[in-house]
Amino acid sequence: MNPRKISNEARLIFSSARVRMDDYNQYQLTELLRQAVDWNFVVEASIHHRVAGLVYHNLNEIETNQNIPFDILSKLKQYYEQTTSKNLGLWKEFCRIQEALRRAKIEPIPIKGIILTHTLYHNLGLRPIIDIDILVRERDVSKTEEIISQIGYKKWTHTTKDYYRSHHCDVTYYLKRDLPDLSIVLDIHWNFVIPRPRRIDFTNVWGRAKKKLINHTEVLLLSPEDTLFCLCLHLRRHIRDLLLKHICDISELLILYKDRFDWDYVVSKARGNRMRFTLYFALFSAKELLGTEVPEVVLNGLSPGFFRRRLIGQFISKETFLYRRLPRLDSKNYWRIGIFLHFLILDSICDFLIYAILVPIEEFSKFFSLPFESKKTVFLYHVRFIYIPLRIIIYLADGLIKILSKSLKT
Prior knowledge:
8% strand; single chain; two-stranded antiparallel ribbon; alpha+beta
């Protein structure tokens, strides 16, 4: 990314959004602290993108931190301490869940934030956790739900069991506490990604997983390569709400396993499951935004064609993507950015059309900000083969008119 095109605030966050600072990023940060910085924006943006713990950690360590306003450092410290406290409670709850499942001969794999804070960040304050995510074998899902219910959790869904098994990759439970902030959300996964546009096969992750001692607790962990797939597919699932936290997870994973990554397996699996462009988007983002080393041969092996590659590059390099102005997407724009991003990261136009047309009604209503199961939503869903292409055409026409208007003015 061209440093001249991004703000001081963006450069400051990119430089400090990492576990360990190298000499270059330390120099960058030192130089930035001597310049004018909109500190309120730094706080707002780093909290929005869930990297405020990392920013605080590195700003607090740097020698020239006396140039940082005291109230700013205090706000970041408060976020860091709250993150530490919450993550500690979630880890203890995960251990309780794991123990209950193991008594029933079910071996869960912790995925995403609950385990990354220990394996990648090694500090509970650096990476916020929203909920607890575990992966279980598909044959064990019903038994897992039964055990989870026995230890106090309740299902958080208004849809049927059959709907979730056919249209989703996880089911959500929650444990209600006396205070809302203390309630715990648990996602039970049987796959990394929803089976749309195509079902992705990850049955071999269990054979590649290995046990490791984490904080005096033995835990079954995904291999580094399967962790990468899990993170990239999670990023794809939440592409409309893309946060720098997602990119940091991938970056820290690549840094930790730099010389031990089986890239042949990654590229082969990505090709076989038609998710090359998803991985390309994630890896290219880590390289462009955080300077993470990614083998050029890997990016070339995953790369889309020239046109889509340019669009991905332009999207990632825009300041508005992450930091210059935080995205405040209204319902009118939310579905537009979703369609555009899914077009960029799905491997073929057919996959994109399957994704758009075969959308379940629940996601259709969310996508277009319609009330779920209202008569209007049900009607539009039944005529979605007309409605969705029409919305896309209107969106493209609107964009073309804006471009022509700007051209005529200049």
